[in-house]
Amino acid sequence: MVQKLLGISGYGVYIPLHRLKLKEIATAWKENTQPSGEKAVAYFDENVLTLAYNACRNAIKHAAIKPSNINALYLGTVSSPYIEASLAAPLANALGLPENAEARDFGASTRAGTDALQAGLDAIKSERLENVLVVGSDILVGAPGTSFEYTAGSGAAACILSCNGVIAEYEASFFYTTGFADKWRNVESRYPLFGDTGFIRKYGYVEHVVKAARGLFEKLGDTAQSFNHVILQQQESRLISEASKSLGFTPEQLKAGMTLENFGDTGSASILIGLSAILDQAEPGQRILVVSYGSGSSAALSFKVNKKIQDKRKNSTPVRSFKENKEYIDYFTHLRQNKIILRTEQ
Amino acid sequence: MKNKVAVVGAGIIDFGVLYDKSPDMMMEEAYIKALQSVDNGIQPQEIQAAWLGTLRGRFTGVTLAHPTGLFKKPVSRVENACATGNDAFRHACFAIAAGVYDTALVIGYEKMHDEKGGLIKLAAIKDIWMRRARTMPSFFALRATRHMHLYGSKKEDFALVAVKNRHNGALYPHAHFKKEVTLEQVMNAPIISWPLGLFDCCPTTDGAAAVILCKAEIAKKYTDTPVYVAGSGLSVDSWTLGEDESLVGFPASKEASRQAYKMAGLQPKDIDVGEIHDCFSVTEILNYEDLGFCEKGQGHKLIQEGVTALDGEKPMNPSGGLLAKGHPIGATGVAQIAEIFEQLRGQAGKIQIADAQIGLTHNIGVGRDNTGSVSCVHILTR
Amino acid sequence: MITPPLWRDYRQNNRMEAYKCKNCGYVSYPEKRKVCPKCKRAPSEFETITLGPRGKILTYTIAYTLPAEFEPPIPLAIVEMDGGGRIYAMVSECKPDQIKIGMEVELDYREIFQEDGYHVQSFKVKPVKKGEEPK
Fold first, then answer.
1. What is the pTM of this model?
2. Predicted ipTM?
3. Assigned fold of A170-308
């Protein structure tokens, strides 16, 4: 079987306009800290689907593909308003995908966007499909006054997977799965619960990211230095730094893909947003490592950048534009816009 | 149809927030007043047919039969948005002019305070088009903004309409608001839909009005001073036709009034007094232009110069209009007919316009997804 | 829930699909028609088009008094879309002092309301940023 070039042929990101400064949360709850940084927060008229729509439109434009030529839409999220009701299917219709398109919804953990990515790659590799649109989208909300509230962010990122017009070729994957439970959210709850901080840091994120990455190094005969750019699940800065230290990455390798301090933890979108940020600046021949994490499992994937990336750059909507184009809102407006506080009718 | 129909009696109840009065009670009060206003008297049995005007009131003509006892009679229910009242009257006129009935009754009513929440709630109706934050004020505010942009009118001009009409309303016994407002109060009131503020909007009101009409040949039996229907006009329209003028005025008003003027053989300059649809202050200014009282884009000059004030050359809304009376939708048009009836007979009391010979009534209504959807105009003469 | 009217108009609401009379060029949105309200031809043939992505504001107001689910003030505009068709739209990411007649705007996909907990999306418009290319 001829090994055709398979990978990403276009990508796009969408981050809501508003930002909340983390120190506003600390001030509201009279916490004795001065956190720096900010996160992206959705507006009252934004939802997981509208963010995904905008990211997909940007990806479609970048890939210069007609919606009618897209065979499938795979959407990953953990913040769908529904426990049952597809977002991928109505989104496929709204984007103008043909009626014979496949629609798939991925969820259950912040790996969901990367799960969708892997599934898209497999579908094309098996020659069942030709062009797949993958999108990760999340509007994460933390219970007011909790530490998760400081990181819970919003954003979406999409990419077109294809064998045509590839700008970043897919190489290989490696997985590490134990089923460790660090974070969970029941159907009735709006907010997730977490295990003990130190405990879950060690046996959750760090262990899985490290083992998945090392497994991929071994499989490909690589080392940490084989990769020019690395994006780890953008969950929390301490987790990222412990995992990357353990693996031996330098800050330079992580820099391009870091969006945590700009947008917060964007959940299922975080890998794809980081990957997009990397591809905004990556050069032909460079290698990219991506490692997701969610709920006791990690996926490590590697990509190699192609020279086609430069031709297409003019049609991209760079992640930098979302870092620069922003408006701050105050804490109470955020609580109101995201229906964390509701006005009841009298 | 010119001068084939005469109005011989009319009754209006006091408009307001009428928690104690049911729809039936409002209608019967208006009906009794109308009967009693007929100079030479009238027996209920003489009424051969009736038309009921209401927007959200109960279905069928029988809704009118219950408070009036007009069972076993032909009663029709008419609805045409804010033009309901004038249109119900128009239906009755047709039937009489066609010779089918000699004497008929028209009642318009609206009960707006039996439900919780006001018109603001309508912005959130479960319909993707209505749900887009559209409220009645916003429909008219859209026209105001463009009028200001094209013709240089200002928020203050709209406010002058409110001041004038609230002044008139304070003199009118049936008005919902009987207190004047100052220009400063209007200008500083909370904004509802820019540039319109609280006092630029008519209130939510309950009300009813009734009118008795008959064929012209028998009018003198009922009164020495009947008022004749000289002209009638009706037009439906939509901004979606893409006409630029529908963004800064109402082609529906223009066409409805054109029909009425033509039927009456009259022109805008002949009108002595009018009760015209000022659901919002800006609407009255647009009405001046649409009804032909001035050139397009000059409406604000009329209010600036006091032309349409109670003591002006061409008084408009001596009753205080919808801004002071409120807008019980089905009742409004019928009340306008009743008011012109009183004006032309010299019975308008403190708001009497001297030597009023020719009067005009006008409604412009909301429909489908915006305003300017329907307009109905009548011209009445001595 | 999604109701029959919302499903019938899905393409109009989610793809800005509109219908252009082949006889007189009138653009109908959102109604999918057989009778042209402009040239009155019944039936007339209509071509399916897509409105936008950009347009110009013909007039606007700023809604301050709205039910609880909205976040006022919200500018509301009548927009003339490029390629024909006039639509009514809420304006997002726009401060009251920013909005002007003649301003260029582009379509912006947003949640419009919820019906029994089912989220319904369609388009608002937002000001075009200087130097930005159409999507």
1. 0.92
2. 0.92
3. Peroxisomal Thiolase; Chain A, domain 1 (3.40.47)
